[in-house]
Amino acid sequence: MKHILVTTDFSKESSSAFDYVKDLIALHKDENIRCTVLTILEDLSTGSAQFQLALAVLDSHGIRDELHQQSKDNLERLIEKNFEGPNVEKALIRAKQAVHLEILEYARTNDVDLIAIATHGRSGVAHLVLGSVSERLIRNTDIPVLVIPVDKTSPAERSAED
């Protein structure tokens, strides 16, 4: 294994994957593994014509560029806080297609050996409406995908169980 891709949407849930990835890197420390932290900025313009018009007006004020810069800054802070070492890279992509397809395209073009993603653990109607990026990844790739379930217990509760 030479390259691990870990995804984030900056949510608390998505950061659940970070410790697993750091443990994998530590286990293979002699292999000099590269790690890329990836976030995808979804295209907001795929909604109704009314929404597209409103977005065009907002975009004339540089909203998309501002969101891109904020995401870039957030990604840098996230890496500084959660990862260390010279082999950690960041990638920020403006989506031109579905998020899972952007992740797969990045993984394929950058020789990724493992994709790590936290699942939000949605079920029922929320899962039907919002879908599951991790589920779509698994169904559409031959690259191994490590899906990390979100631990819904607090660190204090986990310590009390030990």
Description:
This protein is of the alpha/beta class and 162 residues long. Helices cover 46% and strands 19% of the residues. The protein is built from seven helices and five strands. The longest helix is centred in the middle third of the chain and has 20 residues, at 63-82. The radius of gyration is 17 Å and the shape is globular.
Average pLDDT across residues? 80
H/E topology pattern: EHEHHEHEHHEH
Shape type: globular
The first-level CATH class name: Alpha Beta
How far apart are the termini?
Answer: 32 Å
Strand content: 15-25%
What share of the residues lie within helices? 40-55%
Counting helices, strands and paired strands, the structural category is alpha/beta
Sequence stretches where pLDDT stays below 50 over 5 or more residues: 124-130
Tally of DSSP β-strands = 5
CATH topology: Rossmann fold
Number of domains: 1
Major sheet summary line: 5 strands, parallel
Q: Number of helical runs?
A: 7
CATH superfamily: HUPs
Radius of gyration: 17 Å
Q: In what order do the strands lie side by side in the largest sheet?
A: 3-2-1-4-5
CATH architecture: 3-Layer(aba) Sandwich
